[in-house]
Amino acid sequence: MTLVAYFRSLTEGIFRRSRIEHDLEEELRSHVEHRADHLASSGLDRAEAERRARAEFGAQLRYKEECREELRGNFFETLGQDIRYSARVLRKAPGFTVVAVLTLAFAIGANAVVFGVLNGLILRPLNVPQAQSLYEIDWGAEKSGWHSYPDYLDLRDRNRSFESLAAFSISNVAMDTGSNPSSNWVYQTSGNYFDALDLQPYLGRFFHAADERGPNSAPYIVLSYSFWQSRFQSDRSVVGRIVSLNKHPFTILGIAPQDFHGTVLFFVPDFYVPMVNQEQIDGDTTLNIRSTRWIIGIVGHLKPHITPEQATSDLGSVGAYLEKNYPKEDGQMRFSLSRPSLVGDFLGRPVRAFVAGLMLLAGLILLAACANLGSLFAARAADRSREIALRLSLGSSRSRILRSLFTEAGLISLAGGALGTWGSFLLLNRLTVWQPFPRFPISMPIKPDASVMLVAFLLAVISGILFGLVPVRQLLRVDPYQVVKAGSAAGPGRRITARDLLLVVQIAICAVLVTSSMVAIRGLARSLHSSFGFDPSQAVLADANAKMAGYVGDAALLMQKRMIAALESIPGVKSVGLVDTPPLTMGGTTTLIFNENNADPRPSNAATQAFMYHISPDYFHAAGTSMLAGRSVNWHDDKNAPLVAVVNREFAVKVYGSVETSLGKYFKRRDGKRIQVVGVVEDGKYLSLTEDQKAAMFLSVAQYPMNEAWLVVRSNSDSQQLAAGIQHALRSLDPQLPIFIETWDTALNGALFASRIATIALGVLGVMGAILSITGIFGMAAYSVSKRLKELGIRIALGARRKEVLDAALGRAVKLLAFGSAAGLALGLLATRVLAYIVYQATPRDPLVLTGVVLSMALVGLVATWIPAQRALSLDPLTLLREE
Amino acid sequence: MADQAQLLPGTLDLLILKAVSLGPLHGYGILLRIGQISDRALLIEQGALYPALFRLVRQGLLKANWGKSDNNRRAKFYELTLAGRKRLKEETDGWKRLASAIASALAASPEES
Description:
The structure holds 2 protein chains of 2 kinds. Helices cover 54% and strands 14% of the residues of chain A. Chain A folds into 4 domains: 3-73, no CATH class; 131-340, no CATH class; 349-528 and 751-883, no CATH class; 546-737, no CATH class. Chain A is α+β, with helices and mostly antiparallel strands. Chain B has one domain (11-112): Arc Repressor Mutant, subunit A, CATH 1.10.10. Chain B has 4 helices and 3 strands; from the N terminus they run H-E-H-H-E-E-H. In chain B, a hairpin with a 5-residue loop joins strand 2 (62-68) and strand 3 (74-80). The radius of gyration of chain B is 17 Å and the shape is elongated. The N and C termini of chain B lie far apart (37 Å).
């Protein structure tokens, strides 16, 4: 009886109770009267006949109650019986039960974890009202979300599709509330930011567009809720207080809502300031420069009834306007829309592709697990055919037997699901508080919620039904007569069964997983040992942001020279260099390079695009970058000297043809000033490990002063000790300097993060896939050996050799394995193309990977068939035949 | 009553289906019919019939209607539904096979094993 029917009869029962009671009453009375009539007709007097009829009927109350129970349908009672029975059966087969529950727990757990990540990073929108109409504007073929402030103003004022457009950027700033300045992460936003997002302050007020009246006109702060808690201990009187940012006074206006964490999903800022005050925050201003794209994202709600397509074509006209009026800066402005949250499509696309791929793999794992459990159940049902035949012949209905088998499947799937969900919650909670990069306020918003639990539960139910269904057909064909007579020796058919297909699919899935995890592991190993163009070991990075202590421009340069001198005097330090952004740590700046004699600096005329670094003379020593030709910059390359640059090999080859010919040559940037190449260094990685070789150039910090710079310190001494020394030396120069120190190796974690995560995830899934395959093949091989014991015994008795016995016993399993592996390998090679976005040099055409996959699948096969093979070989035909 | 046999579990339903298959009957009529077709060899407590009847109705194998009996009393008459007829046939076949299997098993003589 289905649950629905049960509830229907229950409700009907309530409404019709009195009528049914009446009916029942009357029917039983009618029975007794009929009996009494019968007895009376044989000569008893009426009173005696009625007394005897009542007595013969038996316990009326009891039967009435039983009738009522039958009427209600004893769904829960039978369910209870089934559960008790199934639990007893499962307890009797602990090995089977544990394997089945664990298999399912792992498969469902993996799915729940991946779904949790998917849910947190992709499905769940940003915490803003009407998030579904919120879009981010990207441009160009790379879907870059970076914009310049003048472009933002044009977009904001010229579009006709958005309610209003807000811009934001991320910076690092020193906040001083009177003691102990701290380095904090801040969103610089357009004045309309909070209004465009439709947010209401938790406390106090927000700043608005009307507060912006030119550069540095809006010295206001809105604190994030969590920063307000941690830094100000939720002090409500903080609203209206004046604090200093980089030694400039700013007023705290209010607190942002508790669940609002900015418009980049996993980056939680400490507070928000208007971007018109950029000069005070960043030390210099690029508000008027159209070619400097420092705004991370432009977001806004579409107007009602405007589709994204309409908005895109509207933005197209703004782009055409920009191209026409600012050909130098905005050569190709084709705008597109994307979902905000993951820095638009730039980060969003690979993350979405990867998580979707993982979800698919996890789904395949679950399917494989179901296939496995299905064949386990089918094998068990076959072994239990005697018991089932007995139950059938004793009057149990087939549906009742099926139901009890389904109850078994249900118990196992629920236990597995519960265990898997528990594990995934543990893991997801760990991931939520995980801080992969100590420098950045990263938070993974993947706290498991009810939806994860619901999905896990649904998956458990579905998989329970799936693998519970496998033995049904087999059961429906059970013929008690045949089974009782002939025992369970039904010979295996030669044709391909559904179970064989399941197994091939499962092996193929396993091979896909093994292939992709091997490719990922190879790629990761390679990227760890590849040449970065610098040597991160034994190098410590110190972020001593001169601008935060109020040093700007030439004052910053002077301060930086003093810092270098101070650090060089620390014992054990070999060399100290200065660089504005260390490669592979936190992005980089690119600039367009033009030939010396080019007169029209529009983007399409550029000779190349190069990463641009500003360095001190000793930087290459400190970084461990080797000079190929020429010299490094030196302190004499200052404002009074001609402009010089060191370029990398790629730059030299691309622009001048070779390293040798490049020395002494000139190039220009967009500003038209000639810069002479004085040296060439080796190639390196700059933004990510997976990037193609890029051109790079290094300018003298004495010619282009930088307010923000990192000190690179190379030494022999222990990094902990060195860090203390650096801290002390810098504090004694200026106690107000906020300092952040980490080893370059640690800083590299960011660059390796994606490929590490990919490798771990694929590795875990690959191991799970292999285990599932082993149990699947083992189950099938063991089953086929035990089913054919008699045949094998006869073969041995007739003088079959070991090879022939093995062939007969396991040939089918081995064939399935080979077929599945080949299919899986081919699919896996296709799948790794996706991986190439994330993992360094992920190429499937790697002999080591191919051999590795073949070997591991062979190992899987060997492990899985070892025991059944031993059993087949050790058969003693005499014992066997005697037993028959 | 020494020659009366206890019912095997599950067989009451089969007997009821069989009894009703010959024409609509009320509860007491079914009892009489079972007694008649089994030569009074089977013992059923009268009240135990009703839970079984209610179960078969719920399973859709029987349907019930109120009517007048031969004694001119109001009584509830049961008859087979289509599903009931099908079930009766299946159960009968299954029962026959089992019975003959057990019979031949019991009839086997020692030399054959």
